[in-house]
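Next comes this protein.

***
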Amino acid sequence: MVALTSADPASLETVQACLLLAIALHGQNELRESAQYLTTAIDGALAGGLHMTDSGDPNRTGAVMAESARRTWWELWITETFMATLHPRTTYRCGDTVLTPCLPCEDSLYSEGSALLNNPTLAQYSARVFLEPEPEFSSYAYRIDAVRAMSRFLNASAIHSVSPNSIQAVDNAVASWLHHLPEAKSSAVRNDGHVDELMLQAQLFVHFTSILMHLPRSGMPLTGQASCATEVTPVFLTSQRCALKARSSANDILALAVLPMEDHSPLSICCLVFACVTQLSAAAASDESKAEYQDSVIMVMGVIKSVGKTWELAMCALRRLRPLVARIFHPEDPFSAGAYDSTTVTDRSEYDSGVDLSMPMDLNDFNWSKFFDDLQGQSLDLAS
């Protein structure tokens, strides 16, 4: 474990290494160790002033190094915000800072060593909607804005009695983000046929935030209590409307899931799982055929399984999902009498799908919002 103290100031490289370790360990389901490295990275970043307005002078340190520093800060802020939605006891430290660093440039410029000397600010980005035509910003900038909506939801939910207006404001921010995307950024696939990783994550994050807002207020089964909200209060959005928005966001995530996901950030796993839970919730609430939901769920489970070849977190999530999927779509044990020819199957374990159908589960007690807290068999208190 890398330890940083006031006597051992963190280099930019040390902060970057700790951040990468935090993300990788999260993907390997080493959640406590991941949280420790993320805390270490944030300690070093705050001590080094990375959260200040472009603390490095690009004319002195070089535009590429200045770009590297601002990217490191924004990546820390994005990662901590995302982790705080999964583990509500996380101390949300970056969220208390004023977001003053300039916005990163396009990845292609950075990779070529052609980073800009005068990057736009977040205020300039926010003012784009008042200009004609609207200027286009980097994919990184749109990704930051997507996480801003998530951060606003976290801050609104931290209040004991959530204001209906604050939830509606975040809902409006999510819709605005989608409507104001320029045509060149509206798809996660670039014109050259390659996936724009940053726009893929940005769209996943936006739809993930929408699910966080609407699924607990939808009245559908499996909704439980939102872990990132101390109290889910009634809002003027009707439960039917919330259910529709949650399902729509889940469908949008599933549409992105058809892209190759194995080599992408492990943060995508949580978005896929929440989309799957939303589909399961809709299926459990449906009095009609569940076939359309079953096809979607089987597809996203397959994607999670493929991602699991790289990230252990995905396999752990899949093991938790399977009993729930079986309970909703196949309440009867498929190995019960008449379901197979017992004269040809002598060892049931050879045909074990990994689904523990004997596991007792009250669907109304399933707490989806603490899904990732419990993957290691115990609640994860990251504030301790």
